[in-house]
Specification:
The chain folds into 2 domains: about 10-155, dinb family like domain (Four Helix Bundle (Hemerythrin (Met), subunit A)), CATH 1.20.120; about 165-439, paralog of FGE (formylglycine-generating enzyme) (Alpha-Beta Complex), CATH 3.90.1580.10. It starts with 7 loop residues before the first helix and ends with a strand. It is globular, with a radius of gyration of 22 Å. It contains 9 helices and 12 strands. The strands form 4 sheets. A 4-stranded mixed beta sheet has the order 10-9-8-11. It has a 3-stranded antiparallel beta sheet with strand order 1-4-12, covered by helices on one side. The chain has helices at about 10-30, 35-40, 50-70, 100-120, 135-155, 220-230, 240-250, 285-295, 305-310, and strands at about 180, 185-190, 205-210, 210-215, 255-260, 265-270, 270-275, 365-375, 395-400, 415-420, 430, 435.
Length: about 450
């Protein structure tokens, strides 16, 4: 990138905008419900909302005020309370957490000091300050917790607390159901994206055999066919672990779905509605996605197949930042940033499709891949091993692309998410693929 000294004001404005955007969203998510809802644990899978609020402030203090500015701790006695590795989510309600008013005041005071720091920061000298990385890391961290808090709102039982306009209507998608991705090498990952996190690095070449990939994510209507065909009752389609899991927990449909007479309904942020057939399916585990793919005679794409479909430009041979090119996301490209509280219909956002014609690779739903979460060749921890390295291994499956709940600062063509294959409360969907040897 250009000399940071020449581009300092641009970097400062970008950092300010992303931090401000994240805090406005945090404020919305923690001000739309009363104090009892902030302190309650709405699911053992999630923290109380007030824990996320103070954790956001604590991480910002630790990395920007302490690590970057070298200042003394403001509240050293609370560090352990808000250490995500020290206390699992199920135990956090029993901790002596800051009350909502105190958590808000703490996060606000931290932010005020950070904005003062930002005014005088030179965006060079250390890896943390180069190109404003630490500010970008904290903005991404806050937006990731905002998505986590939105998941908590979805799990919360009670009247509707959040509203947003629906995505624009889209005509039924009539394009090809799948796209051929030619075989050959491509560049995976990045070594140049200034705010990319360590597990996205470094850029490296991958050789991928030709394959077909769904043009759009799998829809509710298509997934219903799997249900109606007895997919949840047929062991053939499931891995042994997946079959044992759905039997043990009595799972027969995506999370939040229930049948009422002859139709399927779902609960979405406090509202019960008919499951829309043209939306990408949501709240399915890796086990469910994998079983559907097997039932359909297909498979989940590998992580490299997903990224090649999203970033490879067959004309230039280069990998772009996003499916539509290198420009930052705009509303015409993708459904991001909690602008809507649901996926857009399959086939939406033609201006966001990849050069190969694949749509909705960014936004709408996180997409499960077949791949375990592993480091890239040449991976180096930065700035701390607890972000990525401690999660590497076969226990976690990779998700790509982001969802409607993801902000653009935490979503790129190289961005990697991961979770256990049983997880369903996340905003997860999928698309399928098949090999095309000889194509």
């Amino acid at each position: 990138m250009t000399d940071p000294a020449l581009d300092a004001e641009t970097l400062r404005e970008r950092a300010l905008t992303t931090l401000t955007t994240a805090r406005a969203r945090t404020t919305l998510l923690t001000s739309c419900v009363d104090e009892p809802d902030l302190t309650a644990q709405h699911s053992p899978l999630m923290s109380p909302l007030v824990w996320d609020l103070a954790h956001i402030g604590n991480q910002e203090e630790q990395w920007l005020l302490r690590a970057v500015a070298g200042r003394d701790a403001m509240r050293p006695e609370i560090d352990g309370l808000y250490d995500a590795f020290e206390h699992p989510r199920s135990e956090r309600p029993s901790l002596p957490l800051l009350a909502p008013a105190e958590a808000r005041a703490y996060a606000s005071e931290v932010r005020g000091r950070v904005l003062d720091l930002l005014e005088g920061t030179a965006f060079h000298g250390t890896r943390l300050t180069e190109a404003g990385f630490a500010f970008g890391m904290i903005a991404q961290h806050e937006q990731q917790h905002d998505e986590t808090m939105l998941i908590t709102h979805q799990l919360r039982i009670g009247p509707q607390a959040l509203t947003a306009p629906d995505p624009d209507p889209a005509p039924p998608f009539t394009g090809p159901s799948e796209v051929l991705v030619p075989g050959g090498p491509f560049t995976m990952g990045t070594s140049t994206e200034p705010w990319a996190l360590d597990n996205e690095r470094p850029a490296h070449r991958r050789e991928v055999a030709p394959y077909w990939i769904d043009t759009t994510p799998v829809t509710n209507g298509a997934y219903r066919a799997f249900i109606d065909d007895g997919g949840y009752d047929d062991e053939r389609w499931w891995t042994p672990d997946g079959w044992a899991h759905i039997r043990r927990h009595g799972i027969h449909a995506p999370l939040f779905w229930h049948r009422d007479g002859g139709q399927w309904l779902r609960r979405r942020f406090g509202v019960t509605e008919v499951v829309p057939p043209d939306e990408p399916v949501l709240h399915v585990s890796w086990f469910e996605a994998d079983a559907y793919a097997r039932w359909a005679g297909r498979r989940l794409p590998t992580e490299e197949e997903w990224e090649k479909a999203a970033r490879h430009d067959p004309v230039s041979g280069r990998s772009t930042r996003y499916p539509w090119g290198d420009a930052d996301p705009a509303p015409r490209h993708a459904n991001l940033g909690q602008r809507h509280l649901r996926p857009a219909p399959a086939g939406s956002y033609p201006e966001g499709e990849s050069p190969l014609g694949v749509r909705q690779l960014i936004g709408d739903v996180w997409e499960w891949t077949a791949s375990d979460f592993l480091p890239y060749p040449g991976f180096q921890v930065f700035p701390y091993k607890e972000y990525s390295e401690v999660f590497f291994g076969p226990e976690y499956k990779v998700l790509r692309g982001g969802s409607f709940a993801v902000d653009e600062v935490a979503c790129r063509g190289t961005f990697r998410n991961w979770d256990y294959p049983i997880r369903r409360q996340i905003f997860s969907g999928f698309r399928t693929a098949r090999s095309a040897e000889g194509a």
